[in-house]
């Protein structure tokens, strides 16, 4: 009798484990993973900068050795409260040393960009804009990185 109860419990535990594994329940993607998804699977994060009163937005500079392109995306974090899913000012930009800016700046719910640039042998810098709307004020956040990731 004890052996059969043990077997039943083992089968129930195994079935429960399979149910959880097959349920599609997964943790939410991190902002960095969302940046990679926006630019493309061959991209990896090189640099980032977080900004805003609640540190609710991060701009990511990514690179793909497959394409040779740099990419920039500015993402609202899921914990940004009312800002996440609400169209507010959000921008992403990138510039190769000696070149002009490429930017995407508008009202977005989740992210601005991706913006791509092919800059072999050159240093690049990234730019971000984020607008927080308060009850009686508007906060505008801007960031421009230094040139880096040369090559």
Topology:
Layout: H1 2-22, H2 31-39, E1 44-51, E2 57-63, E3 69-76, E4 88-96, E5 102-108, E6 111-118, E7 124-133, E8 138-144
Antiparallel strand pairs: 1-2, 2-3, 3-6, 4-5, 4-7, 7-8
Provide a concise account of the structure shown:
With 151 residues, the protein is of the alpha+beta class. It has helices at 2-22, 31-39; strands at residues 44-51, 57-63, 69-76, 88-96, 102-108, 111-118, 124-133, 138-144.
What does this structure look like?
This protein is α+β, with helices and mostly antiparallel strands and 151 residues long. The chain has one domain: Sandwich (Immunoglobulin-like), CATH 2.60.40. Helix content is 20%, strand content 42%. The protein is built from two helices and eight strands; from the N terminus they run ααββββββββ. A four-stranded antiparallel β-sheet has the order 1-2-3-6, with helices on one face. It has a four-stranded antiparallel β-sheet with strand order 5-4-7-8, with no helix packed on it. Strand 4 and strand 5 (102-108) form a beta hairpin. The N and C termini lie far apart (71 Å). Mean pLDDT is 82; it is low at 1-26.
């Amino acid at each position: 009798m004890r052996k059969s109860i043990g077997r039943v419990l083992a089968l129930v535990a195994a079935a429960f484990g399979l149910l959880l594994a097959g349920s599609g329940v997964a943790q939410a993607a991190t902002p960095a993973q969302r940046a990679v998804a926006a630019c493309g699977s061959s991209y990896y994060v090189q640099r980032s900068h977080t900004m805003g009163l609640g540190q609710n937005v991060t701009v990511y500079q990514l690179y793909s050795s497959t394409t040779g392109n740099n990419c920039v995306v500015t993402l609202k974090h899921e914990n940004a409260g009312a800002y996440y899913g609400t169209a507010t000012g959000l921008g992403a930009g990138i510039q190769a040393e000696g070149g002009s800016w490429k930017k995407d700046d508008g009202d977005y719910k989740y992210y601005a960009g991706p913006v791509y640039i092919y800059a072999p042998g050159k240093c690049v810098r990234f730019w971000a804009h984020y607008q927080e709307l308060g009850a009686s004020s508007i906060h505008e956040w801007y960031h421009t990185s230094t040139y880096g990731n040369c090559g």
